[in-house]
Amino acid sequence: MSLLVLVHLLINMKYLWKQDAIEHAKQCDPEESCGIIAIKNNQEKYYPCKNISNEFKAESFVIDPLDWADVEDSVDQIVGIVHSHPQDVLEFSESDKYSCKAINLTFYLVSPKSDKIAIIQPDEINA
């Protein structure tokens, strides 16, 4: 097995939940999807959440607090937030960066139109 194939396999293994997040983004398109990445029984899993952003669901997300509470009560640890940009622009907005830094969780960005994922860590943000 080549090193390139091994790296590809490791990347895909690390984000086993990625397809679930992308499928959720496709279901929510043209609105932004949102969800939580959490660890349960030593495995990362994607938990889709309801976007309760009132007026601008195509450009913003707010995770339903009841969904957050349900996930928090059923997992070992919440480790990240996922949302989509329906416009297929995988760049974090200033609001995304501020939120990531404020809640100190990794943010993941997916597109309903591609198989790509963007990642930002709280310590990468100068805010």
Describe the structure.
With 127 residues, the chain is of the alpha+beta class. It has one domain: Cytidine Deaminase, domain 2. The protein has four helices and five strands, in the order ααββαβαββ. It has helices spanning 3-14, 18-28, 65-74, 94-103, and strands at residues 34-40, 43-49, 77-84, 106-110, 117-120. The chain has a five-stranded mixed beta sheet with strand order 2-1-3-4-5.
Give a short summary of the structure.
This protein is of the alpha+beta class and about 130 residues long.
> What's the story with the biggest beta sheet?
5 strands, mixed
Radius of gyration from CA coordinates: 15 Å
Please state roughly what percent of the residues sit in beta strands, choosing from under 5%, 5-15%, 15-25%, 25-35%, 35-45% or over 45%.
15-25%
Question: What would the CATH topology be?
Answer: Cytidine Deaminase, domain 2
> What is the strand tally?
5
Shape: globular
Specify the CATH homologous superfamily: Cytidine Deaminase, domain 2
Query: Which structural class do the helices and strands define?
Result: alpha+beta
Order of helices and strands: HHEEHEHEE
Give unreliable regions as ranges. 1-13
The CATH first-level class comes to: Alpha Beta
C-alpha termini separation:
43 Å
* CATH architecture annotation name: 3-Layer(aba) Sandwich
